Amino acid sequence: MPALDTISRGLMLDSLREYAKRKIPFDLIRELDQKNEFPADILEEMYNHDILGIHLLLIPREHGGLGGSTVDIYRVCEALARIDLGIATSVFATFLGTDPLRVGGTEEQKSRWMRRIAQDNLLVAYGATEADAGSDLVNLRTRAEHVITDGKLSGYKITGNKQWISNGGVADLYTILALTPGGPSWFLVEKDAPGFSTDKHEDKHGIRLSNTAGLSLDEVVVPADRIIGGVEGQGLVQAQAVFGYTRLMVASFGLGCGCEAVETAIRYSQQRIQAGGPLSKKQGYTHKLIVPHMVKLEAARAFIHETALRLDGEEHGLQTEGAIGKYYATEAGNAAAEDSIQALGGYGYTRDFPVEKIKRDVKIACIYEGTSEIMEMTIYRGRWQEHLKSRGQFYIGMAAEMDALHSRQPDCGADSAALGLRALSVVLEECRAQRLTRHQHVTFKLGEIIAGAEVAAAFCRAAAAKEYNEGVRFDREAALAMSRVCARQTAFDTASQGMKLVLGAGTGNAEELSRAAGFAAIMDKTRGITDDMDLIAAKINETFRPK
Amino acid sequence: MIEISASCIGCGKCLSACPFGALSMDGKLAKINEKCTLCGACVQACPVAAITITRKDEAADLSAYKDIWVFAELSDSPGGKTVRPATHELLSCGRRLADELGQKLCAVLMGHNVSALADTLASFGADKVYLAEHEALSEYSTDACSTVMVALISKYKPNAVLYPSTYIGRDLAPRVASELYVGLTADCTGLSIKDGNLLQTRPAFGGNIMADILSPSTRPQMATVRPNVMKKNEPKPGAKAQVIRESVALDKNAARVKTVERCVDQTHGTGSIAGAGIIVSGGRGMKNKRGFEMLSELAEELGGAVGSSRAAVDMGLMPKSHQVGQSGTTVSPKLYLACGISGAVQHIVGMSSSEVIIAINKDPSAPIFNVCKYGFVGDAAQIAPKLAEAARKLKKGKSCRPA
Amino acid sequence: MNITVCLKQVPDSTQVKVDPQTGTLIRAGVPSILNPYDHFALETALALKEKTGAQVTAITMGPPQAKSVLRLALALGADRAVLLCDRAFAGSDTWATSYALAKAVKKLGKTDVILCGMMAIDGDTAQTGPGIAQQLRLPQITFCESVSVTGRKLAARKLIDGGHEIAEANLPVLCTMVMPHGYAPAQPSFLKIAQSQEKPLESWTAADIGADENLTGLKGSPTRVDRVYAPPQRKRGEVFQGTSAELTEKLLAILEKENFISHD
Q1: What's the pTM value of the predicted model, to 2 decimals?
Q2: What pLDDT digit, counting tens, does each position of A140-151 carry?
Q3: Residue B95: partners with Cβ closer than 8 Å, 6 or more residues away
Q4: Is residue C258, in this structure, part of any structural domain at all?
Q5: Which of A370, B23, B144, C28 has the fewest CB atoms within 10 Å, i.e. the most exposed one?
């Protein structure tokens, strides 16, 4: 099986969308959402090799899968999220569930289990979360005790409870995180293992098509070859190794949901005539409820794509980048969905229209796979190290790159992005000098600010590029305008939030700090932002039309 | 220009294929004489491709090509073959063009025992009728008709040739245009003269865009013309045209495509939408068969036919023969009553030349309201039966009025 | 038996817009698809392949991105695909397109059946299929709903004005296909898509097919586009709102006024 090329990816997305158009119409989704029902037959068809075989994308070629690249998988995740985040979560859970195997399994384990998942279309679940161990897995309580037979370790006896497991009640195979004497480890447990049971499907606010259930392991005995990697204590390392990927996938969920919501709002606004004209031509409406969200989502797209390419290249890990992408895109998606309800007014508030469901669904993206707050902390930790290691030059360097980009492409907003990054560097220095990072609030806020600044820079790079990535539907003029708006807005946010943080938690002179952060220059560059937003609104109306 | 190369094997197949007796055997090789019309039948028949016709190099004097020709498409009627109404429209249009150019309007009539139809063609303005009669032409056949058409065109050099954009017209015209290497424009909704050239106007991209096409350097300029769009003149009974009879020696067994069976829809005739003066048309908004029954009742009261949007046909509520739109039939009734039809571009192009368009739709933002003379924001399923009832009462009432 | 299917990649014309000021097409955000009529022709060819074991070759004339419709064809079951790609083909009208495709079919060697979609949803001309048939001097059966092959004979159910007919011809023959209503184009599974990467897909230039450069592209096209523009906008008429009863009354009055209610 060859490595998938771009054309294959396009064809797969087409097949997925056509399948959804025919078999998963909105009326059906709305009904299942109401009933809180997992669409087992749809998932079965999607896994069926002759219909889609979507899970094959997640399994390496050498084990009978198609070995999708990071770009392949994120694009499919985005497309799935546009269809229904619950279904997307179910497919994603299989990916997540096989991660410990992928990064930590022995060759024999990988070969045996991946092959089975590929051929037998197994649904997999990732069993990590517990009642007292969510963001903090150190509080893990599920225990795996040694089973000794004839003086040798023959297996493990696992006891404990898991909570809120996606595919919990429907999976065929589970990867369970349990505490062995040697530390947290992953185990492969099959659904019919004696002592293993699942709880009822949770009644959730959103992603109601995703089966979420608790797991109960009552002295479940598994043979010794079921510990992933064959060595105890590797569990957390194995989990963290793939965070770059998994966070990027959830980022794509935020992107897909957000775009679906905004596009619904756009189409509605073109048809809704009030006060003599369509809402799509009213600035008060578009510049609040449509344009800012489209800008953020496209920025998220640029960052996701760039990071995906890096992961498909020679780079590994990129957990901090993954966190930035996940945080930014899911928050952007959530905000977009919220305002899309507003944009549809009374219609948005009814179940007839998809936006209230998207809002309910996308909220989970800010919670699972690491809450937004954990992401803020992770981003801060990762970048704080860089700031210290480089003696404050990390963001100065990034700013210089933006300046160089600006001279090549003066209309992509890179000058503002540079100013924002310089301001960030000043803020980080102040935090270091005044030891402000002893306040947890400061560290989390820094995470937020850092994410914004880095995404804006990535957007500038993408808008200036000769060719745009396949997910971009706008022309060059529109993309550059969006990038400009994002860069200016972000620079303003970086500087103002950063200064507020420093002054709020520490000491210092506001005017001096403002000068050091280059705030006046940043403000100066916001000139023209309204015209750009007008242009973006016009381009949006050109690109999207009522169905 | 036509040439027989040295690869000729002297099999004589070209001789029997030629409708004009333009080939003979000169010893072991075939030879062409002055009767040749460049119809291409021999090229087709030659098993070793020894015959070639080159058309592009003819540095033609375009002004030598004169007259507007119309392919007279025929249809079946109880009394035999009759001229299809679309042909009347083409003649009316062609008359306009011919007058503007100061040239003649000619019709091409092919068939078997059809010479009497020349008068009909004359009544719609034809000055000349080129008549080719043969048993092989009794029904349309791509091979036979294109051979004759190419021959006539090569011989008489018309300025332009118009065909109706029907299944037959769209089968014949591209075949002829390809053989002659001339420009052909499909499905025209407008024809005019620009700088001495035929300006051909037609929709593309499903009706989303209009294009004006020219064939500036080839003659004849050919076009297929959408039926039910061009205005039809009043016929002048008693008008006579000059009939030029072209004898063709076709082989009725030589046609390579044979018709084994022909089925004409029962709905053709009464209830057919193509010529209806009033059409009551339904779309997705009529929801089910009952909805269309209501429209049928209304149509009956108004004396009209029932039409359908593509959505309703796809839903299985109406047969395709009633579909109005880009991929259905174009209609131009006096009244088009659109019930529960949203008015997508693909539908509008099929009925936009209706005289009066009235729309009933629940959705005030439906695009159909942008093209109708009168719009009613309401439920067609409620209004249609009420209207049928009211119309019924009105007629009853009138018939009871004192004389 | 060898079947050749002619495909075209087109913008989804249901989503195309025209800038009313400039009269040009706005293509931003409009996805490219396999012309639906060609998609049906391809499925027809693949169904014939299933019955007769024929080899199916898909060809298309287009820019490099047209490769994706060929890959789609391979993923659905075609055995071989050829892209005709050359700057010389740019600006071709239907004659020049038929010429190039006919040349390509000749180069493919023995072809028994050629299937084309009835028309492309961008040009809407329905001329290219018959043009190819003429250039190859093959019999043509146009507007076919279905075809079947028995031995060296092809039978087609085709549309005629007012109904349909069954026509027959000996191979080789070219047929143009119309879509059945409610047609939903088949989509390949992910596995088939991946496997299509390994099926033969070649790219041919004008020189490869021995095309006379004077007969291709803009130079070889007898028709010229003089201009394109947005269709005329009809003026919005009067729109009435009210209860069904009120609207019925109003509508009746209008029908009387416009003389549509037939009097005895």
Answers
A1: 0.89
A2: 999 999 999 999
A3: B105, B124, B125, B233
A4: no
A5: C28
